[in-house]
Each structure stands twice: as C-alpha cells, then as structure tokens.
Amino acid sequence: MRVSLSIMALFAAGCQQDLLFEHVSTLVHSTDGLVVHQGGELATAGMGDQVCTVRAIGDETQLGVIVDYDFTMGQEAVQDQFEETVLVSSTEGVHLIESYSAAYPFEWLDIQADNVQQARLTDDQMVLLRQTTDGCQLDTMTFDGDLNIALDDALCMGSVDVSVNPIDGSIALANGKLTMVDADGPRQLDLRADLVAFDPLSGDLFVGDTRDGAIKRVHQDKVDWEVAMANLVDLNIYGEGGQILFARNTDSGYGEFGVIGDDGRVVDAQVIPNAGAVTSSSDGETVAVSLDEETHFFAVTPDGTRSWRLEPWQDEGVNFVD
What we know:
Blueprint: H1 5-14, E1 21-27, E2 34-36, E3 42-46, E4 51-55, E5 64-69, E6 76-82, E7 85-90, E8 93-97, E9 108-112, E10 116-121, E11 125-132, E12 135-142, E13 145-150, E14 161-164, E15 171-174, E16 176-182, E17 185-193, E18 195-198, E19 205-209, E20 214-219, E21 222-228, E22 232-238, E23 243-249, E24 255-260, E25 266-272, E26 277-280, E27 286-290, E28 295-300, E29 319-321
Parallel strand pairs: 1-29
Antiparallel strand pairs: 1-28, 2-3, 3-4, 4-5, 6-7, 7-8, 8-9, 10-11, 11-12, 12-13, 14-15, 15-16, 16-17, 18-19, 19-20, 20-21, 22-23, 23-24, 24-25, 26-27, 27-28
C-alpha cells in the first residue's frame, strides 16, 4: 500500500522546520519485528513467512531488498539485534543471522526451541520466553551453560515486553505488571509497566505505562524521573543509550515520535500519521517507525542541518522500498 497524499503532505510540512528527523523512505510492507543496522542504511524485518534485509537509504536505484532468508515454511519474526547479529524466531526455534553486509556471504545458525514468544540477545546471553508443557518458562543461554526459570503463567498468556540488562544480565518483563529476573529468581516491583528497555550505558531501566500514560526511569528499583506521556504506544533505546525514543498518538488525530534525554526532557518530536513501534540504528543515524502496513525511515541530524528537505512545492516525493 502506498502512502496517501495527505500523509505525504503531513511529512513535507513538518520538514519545513529544522527538526531532528527527516523522512527519507517508506518500506511498503507489513512487518513482524524490525531492526536498523549500524550506519542506518540497512534494516532487517520479518515479512510474513520470511525475513528480508532492505536498503532504506539511498537513491531509487539502490533501495529495495538486498537478501531474503526463509528459515521455515511458517511465520518468521525479527526479535532483536546485537552488533552484527540479528535474532529471528520461527515456529521451529530461533535463528542467528551472523552477517548482513551485501559484500559478504550471509550465514546463520539455527537453534531448536519450541513455542518461543519473545527472544533477546546480548554479547554473552540469549534469553527466550517460552510456553512449555510445564508452564511459562524463561530460558537463558550463556557461555557458562543454560538456565531454565519458571514464571507466572500470566506472562505467557498475553502481550509481554522483554528487555535484558547488558551490564549484569538481569531481565525485565512487562505485561501491565513489572517482573524482574536475576540470579535469585523472579520478583515483582510495585510499578505498572507494559514497555521496558534497559539503558546499556547505566544499566537503568526505562518503563512505559500505556494505560496511565507515563515513561519512568528506574534506578536500583526506584523511580529516578517520570514524564507524562498520554496515549503512549512504544518506547526504545535511542542510539547507544542514555536517551530514549517514544511514540504516541495525540488528541489531534495524528501521531508523533521523539527523543527524551537523560534528564527526562523531550529533546525533539516529529509528526507521523499515527504512532507505531520505534527503533533506531545503534549509532543513532536512522530511526524507523513501523505501522500496520508500512515502515517509515527517518535520517537524523542532531544539529538541525539538512542536506535536503521535503518541501511541498518541490514535488519531491519520498522514496519507496518495495
């Protein structure tokens, strides 16, 4: 589905100012999980029964699918990314894509695991949330061995967000309630949350509450600061950490996304057709907003300068990634 003219005009009007984000291309396909790679030009997404790496930034002759992976006959979802490795889940287990550069062969590793609902990856740990015959279970796989942790069955019965602290290996799970898992096992904090993301710089935890409309930074189990955020839809770490991306819907009928600094202040925000899942490349060069049937890519220029703009009177359309 192409972007409508009204949405195009909305983006173009927003880019008349010196904003942090500039809309550069649109992936015209529904996605099941998406990560943006270092440098911001490439992204890998679950697209139905396969996974595709696409070029999102470049001229019209460069944009498009670079390679597609087809691990199984069923649905495949992109779950996470660490440096040059992408973690994918399918009906048959999880798959690690070890290289996605167009200049090198694409390799992957398959790991059998049943009923994977969420999967996360760090430099020395892979975490799988699974519904097993014995109940809800969290599997942690490290160089030192595997650990299976029994969880409340409610964590496998609905939507749950998962994040792993890359500093100490602790795990946060949010499904309205906030559950923390470490070497001592699971415990609940007295905080509402359905979105979680660990800051890789400090190890602090960002939590989002879509019902009450708030984003909080949690340090040593206590709230460090809180930002009111009505109609919150998603949050994620921006770049290499210290700041956080958010997406929300507004009372005016459109959406917006932006960045919150480490002091809890909103640094900048950009109008979008409606809010969706947000993510960025690890260097912060590119931000992606995934809606139901399309993903919008934005180049980031923190100092506000622009190499080019989308102006409504120039008839310069946004590139499409088909």
